[in-house]
Amino acid sequence: MKNSIQIGTLFLMALFLVPVLSPAQTAKVPNHTPAEWEPQQSAWIIWPEDTAAAKVTLKFVKELISEVKVNLVFPDEKARDFMLLDARRDSLNTSMLKLHIQKDLKGFARDLAPWFVTNASGKTELIEFSKNNFGIPPDSASSTSSRLNPEELTRIISSQSKLSVKKSDVVLENGMIDINSKGIAVCYMETILQRNPEKDLVTITNELKEKLGLKSIIWLGSAPTIDKYTKGPRNANIYAQGANGHIDHFVRFANDTVILFTRIDDNERRYDPVSSADYFILNEGAEVLKNVISKNEMQLRIYELPVPVMRFHMATDTVRATAADSIRYRQFNPGDIVYFAPNVSYLNFFICNNKVFLPEYYREGLPESEKRKDDIAGALFEQLYPGKKIVRINPVALNLLGGGLRRMVFPQPLQPAK
Fold it and tell me: In the beta sheet, which residues pair with residue 317?
């Protein structure tokens, strides 16, 4: 049935209709989707083309290999060999790496990977949801995912893990939804309906509950603008890349009793038109979340984290007289300066066994207020994860591509003993 709710009305829905949980299932939940803090046995990463992003990824991998075997997927042998050269210079233990070549497979692993679920029999299987280029029209000029091939990554993972694959016709990327180990999920309603325009929310909800073993879903309304796709700049001459409505930069479960939410400072947002728009969206989302938790008497505490000032981390580009730039920067002339805004957030953290990978943003020359934000995030995570090592990594190179520490990696949970 074609969805009759228009995307443009969803901001109002966030105010009036969203504070209701999807009805809980009365039948026994057949599947279980492991939360990120449950034991992991390996991880999957698609090696980035971008040089700065590759440096961040190498630093990440060097810390990750003490926890799990890391599967790195390269688009060709040349990219693999360059990584191995850098790994040797960095004294990285390559024995914990498994290298794969898949021609032209590019993107972030979390966007393309299938879901690992444990069925009622205690066996692990893969769930592959449909993909539609983040809901972006195929004729757009966006380079976000023009060469993504999710079926190929699923094929590699299935072959390596020897797990069967079940398919779903619902469109869902992993970063669109966050799930705790009790089967409670949070997702932007706007995004799920935009990806599935021919389905209504009840149909989508029932499919997600069946395939992922969810008990309830907290539907928030609109996603922040920094993560949305636009054909032109976000504002004036400021561009940004995003996942078109993913939730994992803005709302995350820290564990089964704590949910984290980002909030932009009222004074800081006045200097930045993109953050100013998202200030109101995030604040409305926070109120919706509080109302849902209170109304349904959910045992969840909300902790808010600050957002680094985006303008301190923007990249610049000069429009060139090329065919590519005439399409990408169609509103501008050669010689004009444009800016790229990163999706900065502490919430795109990643948990892997005994380590938590947490973004940090302060660098010399920035105001002390930015260092305090790093310190606030670090102190909270030390409190949330006692006994785990908190690994701080600056993810701006990934943020500029619309990604983050979590978006670039997808964990393979520890499979039950046979």
Answer: 338
Cα-Cα-Cα-Cα dihedral of 380, 275, 138, 188, to 10°? 50
d(CA 262, CA 260): 7
d(CA 290, CA 302): 8
**What SS3 class is residue 212?**
helix
pTM of the entire structure? 0.91
* One-character DSSP codes across 229-253: --SS-SBTTEE----SS-STTTEEE
In angstroms, the CA 300 to CA 294 distance is: 9
Whole-number Cα distances in Å, 248 to 24, 35, 109, 227: 23, 13, 14, 10
Q: What is the pLDDT of residues 331-371, one digit of tens each?
A: 999 999 999 999 999 999 999 999 999 999 999 999 999 99
Give ∠ CA 377-382-388 in degrees, rounded to 5. Answer: 130
Torsion of CA 229, 230, 231, 234, to 10 degrees: -140
Q: Which residues pair with 394 in a beta bridge?
A: none
Give the confidence band of 146 by pLDDT, cuts at 50, 70, 90. Answer: very low
Cα→Cα distances 363→143, 262, 344, 347, 394, Å: 30, 21, 14, 19, 9
The 10 Å Cβ neighbour count of residue 399 is 32
Task: Rounding to the nearest 10 degrees, give the CA dihedral for residues 31, 118, 348, 84.
Answer: -150
Helix (H) or strand (E) holding 414: none
Element (H, E) at 260: strand 258-263
Across the chain, mean pLDDT equals 89
> Distance (Å, rounded) from C-alpha 239 to C-alpha 236?
9
